[in-house]
């Protein structure tokens, strides 16, 4: 183990120091703002890029709906069953949980639509630009969110890859420890991918990711309504005692503070709001009523998929659900092995996009454009630090809940409402509703973040 860590550090860490230099001046173009593209990759936009973007082919309503679903539904949805098991092991807990998912999906869709409305009326192409036009010149909160959101995603991906690689190697008869798996993956495949300058060749992997999610949803449904994981089933005996399904019929206390874990995870499941300006401008005939229809369809289907996967996972394992529910299934379950393989390929292919977002978010905070040397150094240092954190933090569900509470609450509930109120839109009722969303986001952020930490590291304090 020690030798593996030394190998990783010697491979990734350079000997030179990390010095930020003023960005080189580009003739005819000035840096605008940071935005998230439909593949969740922050990109620095230039004035010349905006002109080119205007000639890009527009997307139909159907195509845009698929892209909204693709932007929302990802590996984070696999943590939702653990959000239910955090406060109950009773099947009856699904009734309030599904209701909650639908309500939060509606609120998330409303704020997504709000961002589109503000960008349309203010002629903005990013949240940062809309913020500067409606709130003020300082977009530091947006820049900080641009950094922290992909940081949490990259860490979650590393944890998922470590667990998935261990299960996959076990299924084919090899024994590889979790630590060795993530160190080897980081020092080889992930490092090379994160150093790529052009990520366009990896774009098809997003389709694989969506296909993998749907395949996993079908698999989870078959297992939930089958007998394989019930007492006496073919897979039940292959599970460790701590991982076997746990159910009880005790009354459900949905007002238990631990329910905030699910609330926080739900924020991650619906978090695609940085993409709202892109979806607006890429939509054919992008009137506000048409954009609202896109949001209704996209978030409605996302809510159904999220609620379904949450239900299937919880109905199979109950109170034993782990932070990533695929880890619950037996290593020798062939269906689970296929789903793990699809998920691993999807995460590996998506990792460089997320890491690129982290890198751009960092240099956005520093207000500088990186030199090639700084770019390479950031990849080495950043990937090393994330890998070290993934060796210590083993619960992707915690990362999903904590980042959903802290970043998701701000991006979904607070930022859009602040811009809405500052812009002077809406009547008294709608403005009051946006004040309510700001308060709700603050409560979810503080309380949800605190409960996520306590539930993962100090569970006795919530007993």
Automatic annotation (TrEMBL):
<feature type="transmembrane region" description="Helical">
    <location>
        <begin position="335"/>
        <end position="356"/>
    </location>
</feature>
<keyword id="KW-0472">Membrane</keyword>
<feature type="transmembrane region" description="Helical">
    <location>
        <begin position="254"/>
        <end position="273"/>
    </location>
</feature>
<feature type="transmembrane region" description="Helical">
    <location>
        <begin position="172"/>
        <end position="193"/>
    </location>
</feature>
<feature type="transmembrane region" description="Helical">
    <location>
        <begin position="294"/>
        <end position="315"/>
    </location>
</feature>
<feature type="transmembrane region" description="Helical">
    <location>
        <begin position="399"/>
        <end position="421"/>
    </location>
</feature>
<protein>
    <recommendedName>
        <fullName>Amino acid transporter transmembrane domain-containing protein</fullName>
    </recommendedName>
</protein>
<dbReference type="GO" id="GO:0015179">
    <property type="term" value="F:L-amino acid transmembrane transporter activity"/>
</dbReference>
<feature type="domain" description="Amino acid transporter transmembrane">
    <location>
        <begin position="58"/>
        <end position="452"/>
    </location>
</feature>
<dbReference type="InterPro" id="IPR013057">
    <property type="entry name" value="AA_transpt_TM"/>
</dbReference>
<feature type="signal peptide">
    <location>
        <begin position="1"/>
        <end position="17"/>
    </location>
</feature>
<feature type="transmembrane region" description="Helical">
    <location>
        <begin position="433"/>
        <end position="454"/>
    </location>
</feature>
<feature type="transmembrane region" description="Helical">
    <location>
        <begin position="140"/>
        <end position="160"/>
    </location>
</feature>
<dbReference type="Pfam" id="PF01490">
    <property type="entry name" value="Aa_trans"/>
</dbReference>
<feature type="transmembrane region" description="Helical">
    <location>
        <begin position="377"/>
        <end position="393"/>
    </location>
</feature>
<keyword id="KW-0812">Transmembrane</keyword>
<keyword id="KW-1133">Transmembrane helix</keyword>
<feature type="transmembrane region" description="Helical">
    <location>
        <begin position="205"/>
        <end position="225"/>
    </location>
</feature>
<feature type="transmembrane region" description="Helical">
    <location>
        <begin position="98"/>
        <end position="119"/>
    </location>
</feature>
<keyword id="KW-0732">Signal</keyword>
<dbReference type="GO" id="GO:0016020">
    <property type="term" value="C:membrane"/>
</dbReference>
